[in-house]
Specification:
By secondary structure, the protein is of the alpha/beta class. It has helices at residues 16-27, 40-52, 67-81, 105-130, 148-151, 158-177, 197-200, 206-210, 222-233, and strands at residues 7-10, 31-36, 57-61, 86-89, 139-144, 183-190, 244-247. A seven-stranded parallel β-sheet has the order 3-2-1-4-5-6-7, with helices on both faces.
């Protein structure tokens, strides 16, 4: 593989939307760094799948809720590939269904540390490598938001919705901050997507229960979100920055 081949790093890349982005990114010609927090088996399996299809990838462990892990993750990409051209802030969590008057401070701090602070710190490291101000050659960042940011997620997880609202604002602000430094920053807002995240929030049947209330009467797929992300990363979106693209089936 040529050292000039572009490099993509995806946080939370071993499963769900993140894995779909990694697969599609490899097909688009990127060398892919697959970040995972705990499930090494899933990350290794995805790397093997990409390699079997003729792509180049490696797995890199790191919890985006821990600053030292984030710094180490980007350093590992530096060592492996020597460049970074595209970055996706995908890692994030939901918690169990709860009202605001049932939430404790540990839940709120964990939610914001991973979903908001982690995204800021990851973007910081990406900008340090991409920005022409820092000697970089430019690049593209895509943040994964959620339709919950504009719907509020009442009676489910207002804290998650609020964290994704922060991502929307962060996307716009960072995009304008680095617009003259060769970096584009955009976001994708998925709606109800059929992935494991619902089970992690204690609602494994959520897609089945809610799909008839959706305008298209079905959930989206991880591949449909990945397609939007790869468009925003690509040169086809060269005049698009600070944009938030809904991939929510009209929800």
């Amino acid at each position: 593989m040529s050292r000039s081949q572009k490099v993509l790093l995806v946080t939370g890349g071993s499963r769900g939307i993140g894995a779909a982005i990694c697969r599609l990114g490899s097909k688009a010609g990127y060398r892919v760094a697959v970040n995972y927090a705990a499930n090494q088996d899933a990350a290794d399996a995805l790397v093997a799948e990409i390699q079997a299809a003729g792509g180049e990838a490696f797995a890199v462990k790191g919890d985006v809720g821990v600053e030292a892990d984030i710094v180490a993750m980007f350093a590992a990409v530096d060592r492996a590939y020597g460049r970074l051209d595209a970055f996706v802030n995908n890692a994030g969590i939901v918690d169990v269904k709860a009202r605001v008057d049932e939430m404790d401070v540990s839940r709120l701090e964990r939610m914001m540390r991973i979903n908001v602070v982690g995204s800021f710190l990851c973007a910081r490291e990406a900008v340090k490598r991409m920005s022409t101000r820092h000697g970089g050659e430019g690049g593209s960042i895509v943040n994964i938001s959620s339709a919950a940011a504009v719907l509020g997620a009442p009676d489910n997880y207002v804290d998650y919705a609020a964290s994704k609202g922060a991502i929307d604002t962060f996307t716009i602000g960072l995009a304008r901050e680095v617009a003259l430094e060769g970096i584009r920053v955009n976001a994708v807002r998925p709606g109800i997507i059929d992935t494991e995240i619902h089970a992690s929030g204690g609602q494994p049947d959520r897609v089945t229960l809610i799909q008839d209330t959706l305008p298209m009467k079905r959930a989206g797929t991880a591949d449909e979100v990945a397609g939007a992300v790869l468009y925003l990363l690509s040169d086809a979106a060269s005049y698009t920055t600070g944009a938030i693209l809904n991939v929510s089936g009209g929800r």
